[in-house]
Amino acid sequence: MIKQLEVVRREHLKEKPDMATLGFGTVFTDYMLSMDYNPEQGWHNAVILPYQNIELSPAAQVLHYGQAVFEGMKAYRTGDEVRLFRPEENFRRMNQSNARLNMPEVDIDFMVDTLKQLVTLEKDWIPTGEGQSLYIRPFVIATEAYLGVRAATHYKLLIILSPVGAYYGSDHLLATKIYVEDEYVRAVRGGVGFAKVAGNYAASLMAQTRATELGYDQVLWLDGVEQRYVEEVGSMNIFFVIDGTVVTPELNGSILPGITRKSILELAQHLGYPVEERRISIDDVFEASQAGTLQEIFGSGTAAVIAPVGSVKYKDQELVVNNGQAGLVTLDLYNHYTGIQNGTEKDPFGWCVKL
Ligand code: COI
């Protein structure tokens, strides 16, 4: 395992965009990290280099059999102070995803140190406006040129950085409209639903396109066996506030173990909210709505942060949550969560890693 990092400087830095109008995932910084794997050297050739296109054989296995894993994390800046949020958790999850796709694991401490160096170099790219951050996208792809179906021998890990604002629309707290998918499924137990692999997202796109065409923001996936139990939304985990309790579907092998999900469970308990991780059916959700006990719904994810859900459409029924507005529990969690990330609030959990 390599322990050193080379830095190749670029001659001219890019012009920074107007940070006031940032959306999500369209602007990339000056530098990226690249690292290669082969069976003889393990991970090697770690280098920070100018952001650029990569060269890939048309026979690279990622292009044919989809060995591709990614992560999403963020860096925040207040004045000169820069923080990463739980970076070791992301590399731990990357290793779980890598293992599931028969790809080599990474050294978590080395990756966190390397990321710190990359983000330090790029700290002027971290936007500081309300709801803004530097989105960090580590990913691993199979690069071996071979058309036989087996685990590749050669891989590339890259980390690219993108200054971002809200994922949905112009504001993290704009309520989203959710469409419950009742034809396709996202994942099945024993499959790769728990892993952050590119194929899960590819398989979700047809339903997402249909939902978008019908005027909804995101798809809510049901379990792959009975199509009855709530699993997750396309880009986030999901939470319900029912009778004062913060409820989220329990992890079952087909739901992504979100780091924001885990953090919200810890934060909600810390703030005194009862929390439950349990199976919850879509019928339970509509029944709770009819009974008046469904108070709020929100999604959670690195990109989405905490995103209120304003309505849910399932077959021929549609429910509106909290008059289509962010609820009090959602706002409370959002304020504390982003306060910890931005450094305006104490971090009782030790989540933030300062550069
Ligand atoms: C994230 O929240 O970081 C994600 O990976 C979700 C999405 C942008 C794919």
TrEMBL record:
Pfam families, sorted: Aminotran_4 (PF01063)
Modified-residue entries (N6-(pyridoxal phosphate)lysine), positions: K196
Name what cofactor the protein needs: pyridoxal 5'-phosphate
Q: Which domain of life is it from?
A: Bacteria
Q: Where is the signal peptide?
A: none
The UniProt record lists the EC number as 2.6.1.42
Pathway(s) where this gene product acts: Amino-acid biosynthesis; L-leucine biosynthesis; L-leucine from 3-methyl-2-oxobutanoate: step 4/4; Amino-acid biosynthesis; L-isoleucine biosynthesis; L-isoleucine from 2-oxobutanoate: step 4/4; Amino-acid biosynthesis; L-valine biosynthesis; L-valine from pyruvate: step 4/4
Q: Which UniProt keywords apply?
A: Amino-acid biosynthesis, Aminotransferase, Branched-chain amino acid biosynthesis, Pyridoxal phosphate, Transferase
Which BP terms does GO give this entry? amino acid biosynthetic process; branched-chain amino acid biosynthetic process
What are the GO MF terms of this UniProt record? branched-chain-amino-acid transaminase activity
Annotated InterPro entries: Aminotrans_IV, Aminotrans_IV_CS, Aminotransferase-like, B_amino_transII, BCAT-like_C, BCAT-like_N, BCAT_family
Give the matching NCBIfam families.
ilvE_II (TIGR01123), PRK13357.1 (NF009897)
Q: What is known about what this protein does?
A: Acts on leucine, isoleucine and valine.
Q: Which family does it belong to?
A: Belongs to the class-IV pyridoxal-phosphate-dependent aminotransferase family.
PANTHER family under this entry?
A: BRANCHED-CHAIN-AMINO-ACID AMINOTRANSFERASE, SUBGROUP IIII AMINOTRANSFERASE
What is the recorded name of this protein?
A: Branched-chain-amino-acid aminotransferase
Tell me which species this is from. Macrococcus equipercicus
